[in-house]
């Protein structure tokens, strides 16, 4: 594909065209790890938290190909709380923007309903309730986990706040294994784009976002 593009560039009088490949995504989804893998181990800063890549980093792959790592991008506002919780669960945003008990309730419900035995196996509890569970059930499940971990106050009252913090830490440490907090969108129809040769790439477009 790049060879064909370079040939077209030569016909347009563009000598030694440079191919810049921009790697873009939300924070903490593995952009730097991906680049490090394909760039044969060239060192980039990476960590399991948002905000590690502060500016653009350029990695020269060949004299004509450069990879560009970018800081994570996010919308200016989330459409709903679920999206915000999913991003926080993946360490893409800081959890401070969401009430911790609501975050724990939503995420523990999602894991319990979609990944059978993940909760039960990690905390050594039996089947809590038939799936799917609801908002109220999630707090009862957290209380059960508190009892199992012996997080109690005043003798036998479950310490739910401590259980919530323990659960949140387990989520961020990936102790439930490989979990996707979103499902792929089901594609119901497709459109066919014109062949690349029919597209005039020299025409400038107004890409201003109002």
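Sequence proposed for the structure above (210 residues):
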């Amino acid at each position: 594909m790049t060879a064909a593009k370079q040939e077209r560039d030569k016909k347009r009088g563009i000598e030694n065209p440079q191919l810049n490949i921009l790697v873009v995504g939300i924070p903490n989804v593995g952009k730097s790890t991906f680049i490090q893998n394909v760039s044969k181990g060239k060192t980039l800063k990476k960590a399991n938290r948002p905000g590690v890549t502060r500016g653009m980093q350029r990695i020269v792959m060949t004299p004509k190909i450069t990879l560009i790592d970018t800081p994570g991008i996010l919308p200016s506002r989330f459409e709903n709380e679920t999206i915000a919780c999913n991003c926080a669960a993946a360490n893409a945003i800081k959890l401070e923007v969401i009430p911790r008990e609501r975050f724990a309730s939503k995420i523990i419900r999602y894991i319990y309903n979609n990944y059978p035995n993940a909760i039960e196996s990690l905390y050594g509890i039996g089947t809590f309730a038939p799936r799917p569970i609801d908002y109220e059930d999630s707090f009862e499940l957290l209380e059960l986990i508190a009892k199992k971990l012996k997080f109690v106050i005043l003798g036998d009252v479950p310490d739910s706040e401590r259980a919530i913090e323990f659960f949140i830490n387990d989520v961020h440490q990936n102790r439930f294994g490989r979990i996707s907090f979103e499902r792929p969108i089901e594609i119901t129809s497709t459109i066919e784009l014109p062949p690349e040769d029919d597209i005039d790439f020299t025409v400038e477009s107004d890409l201003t976002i109002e």
